Amino acid sequence: MRQVASRMVSSISMGVSSSCFPMTRPILCDYVSSHRPVSGDPVELRDYLTVIRKRWLAIVTVTLGVLALSAAVTLAATATYTARTSLFFAVEGSASVSDLAQGTTYTQRQVESYSEVATSPYVLEPVIETLGLGTDVETLAQQIDVTVPENTVIIEIAVESEEPQQAADLANAVGTELAAAVSDLSPDGGEQGESIRATMISAATAPGSPSSPNTPRNLALGLVLGLFAGVGLALLFEVLNTKVRTETDAARVTDASVVATIGYDDTASAHPLTVHAAPDSARSESYRRLRTNLQFLDLADEAGTIVITSSLPQEGKTTTAINLAIALAEAGTRVLVVDADLRRPQVAKYMQIEGKVGLTTVLIGRATLASVVQPWGNNNLHVLPSGRIPPNPSEVLGSQAMEQLIDTAAEQYDVVLLDSAPLLPVTDGAILASRASGALLVVGSNIVHQAQLTKSLQTLEAVDGRVLGLVLNKVQKKHTDGYTAYHYHPTYSSRTESDARSREKRRERQRVPRDRAAASPPGHAVEASGEPDPIPARVSGDELAETGREAAPPRHASPADM
């Protein structure tokens, strides 16, 4: 939508660029120029309608506000009435047609002067005295409008007043005094017969309705101005809002493909395992689509190690990594999920497994990869939690031990997914991307700005990291094309994820607690939180080894716990 608004701004810029003032050019002209569309595709009517449909509430609010303001001003205005009178000017004593033509020409020239006399003290002072008005000449002159129709010898006098009868009396009085003034001021033509005479041809009458305010006109004007203001603000918001919300917004930043679009779910943080808990939901199908699209990426000559990261926190990188891993495992792919986010690890918490022993335990040499990984679900999915949080995550992830772990994991599994910290706050993700086959960049819809996404891509490019694609996450329905996702059952239906999740909850409540306990191997405790304890700040290598020796690595994690 921002492209549509930008094109409208660019069309305005064609008229603005040639008339920008020197002081406004650095701000206005450069801003307009910067928002010209890159593509030359024509803007269609449906593009404008899409912007209006998207921001209809703001447009209606602005329109009603301007309309209400117009109505308030109209009601608060004092009603005024206008009375009109007309005077005809002629030359007396014309003996021939030639004299008459000359007299008419002379009169037309004089009428312009007499129109000024109508609002002069010479005319208005007698009017004030005759009608007994408690006002002065200047105030009364402001109530009088004198006009001369083109190519005529007629003067029209319009007088405004708060009282209709007073307006008529004033108009007639001004007309009478102006006629007398013309008689006094006109030169005596003598035998030439060029004396000018003014005759009132239309006497003023009391108007039946006020001339101001014009309520229908004011309300119509307020409605039109409100619509223009509302649509203008909607387009301005589209231009100024630089957040990435749709694939079109992402395409303005990078040529990287959007390999999947995941819909918004406000319960995702509470129920992150969408593919497992609601396999028939629209979001689960989106993760499977991501799995399918990954199969078309050129990873044949490289180990399948993929870093999943984002620009900022809260964009959904961890839930994307977990659900992608479950989807891959369902298709028979041997997958290892590594929680390499040593700042705020969440994999163990979301998957409800032991998280105190894991990646850092292997890196310090106190355990092997095979003894720490925990199977989840079927035999195709294994999980390597973060372990204890080190005081220097960047150095740990950039160590030779981490590189060896990635190589070992790539030999044992078809795909290795590394959940990494966001790119902009820390450098952990960039370090891992430089050692992996590629990176999937999760883009939170309406969360990250275009400039931030550009910075993240530049960070990956600086370390020669390969961007496999973008995953547009948390896309709200209003930012989609409006297609309804169906769940394929024996009969087609439109059941939501919450319905599927409710069924899963009912099944879990029917399970016997002792069956769940029996499903877990002895000696293996499953933490609901999965939060690993941090390692004390800046411990030595020996102390870190001792820390790893304190916790015996679990042998297995039971999928029945889920």
Q: Explain this structure to me?
A:
With 562 residues, the protein is an alpha/beta fold. It contains 23 helices and 14 strands. Helix 4 (56-76) runs antiparallel to helix 9. It is rod-shaped, with a radius of gyration of 42 Å. The model is unreliable at 1-5, 7-40, 482-498, 510-531 and 535-562 (pLDDT under 50).
Secondary structure layout plus pairing:
Elements: H1 2-16, H2 25-34, H3 45-54, H4 56-76, E1 81-91, H5 97-117, H6 121-131, H7 137-142, E2 144-147, E3 154-161, H8 164-185, E4 196-202, H9 215-240, H10 247-251, E5 258-263, H11 274-277, H12 282-294, E6 305-310, H13 317-330, E7 335-339, H14 347-351, H15 359-363, H16 369-372, E8 374-375, E9 381-384, H17 393-397, H18 400-412, E10 415-419, H19 428-433, E11 438-444, H20 450-462, E12 467-475, E13 487-488, E14 492-493, H21 497-510, H22 513-519, H23 541-550
Parallel strand pairs: 5-12, 6-10, 6-11, 7-9, 7-10, 11-12
Antiparallel strand pairs: 1-3, 1-4, 2-3, 8-9, 13-14
Helix pairs in contact: 1-9, 4-9, 6-8, 12-13
